[in-house]
Amino acid sequence: YGDGVVTGYGTVDGRPVAVFSQDFTVFGGALGGVFGEKIVKVMDFALKNGCPVIGINDSGGARIQEGVVSLGAYGEIFRRNTHASGVIPQISLIVGPCAGGAVYSPAITDFTVMVDQTSHMFITGPDVIKTVTGEDVGFEELGGARTHNATSGVAHHMAGDEKDAIEYIKALLSYLPSNNLSEPPVFPEEADLETSETDRELDTLIPDSANQPYDMLSVIE
Description:
Blueprint: E1 5-12, E2 15-22, H1 33-49, E3 53-57, H2 68-84, E4 90-94, E5 97-99, H3 104-107, E6 111-115, E7 120-122, H4 126-133, H5 139-143, H6 145-152, E8 157-159, H7 162-173, H8 197-205, H9 216-220
Parallel strand pairs: 2-3, 3-4, 4-6, 5-7, 6-8
Antiparallel strand pairs: 1-2
């Protein structure tokens, strides 16, 4: 523990997982050189060992006092995000206000989970937008969980609280392989193999012609 971020590894349902968690009480969770180095090392650990990496994000962005060192650290993190893409699962949990450089990495991970009325993601905050454009916009409207789940598509799940978000991530991990060389978990499940009326409806929902459109929502339902 130190410099505003906690890193480590453990297990979820007996499977190894790497984690980093940003601490907003230290410089507002701003990323500096050592801060970034710790995240880079835990991401390298996850890639080397072929396990998922979970980032718990609560950061105001770059630590301005460290200048370009902070920007360089972000570059190293983004580089590993791209190298890990398609190799190990990358999951981001947003538990507070994240601004500036702090939002780029979560946006390019595989899954982003936000907490309703608590999580915010934006490159610049409402005050800057007000100064530059004259437009009044609130935190929730600009980058709240509902905005990113329903409008922008940046987030993939909106949790009611942090406990709910963590439980969702644990459930999500149970469906995913640890890496691109391993198989996803398998659970015995007795399925009803009898054809139902709902199954037969698919014959009429999906047209015979590949050129004829149909409502995918009806198929999913």
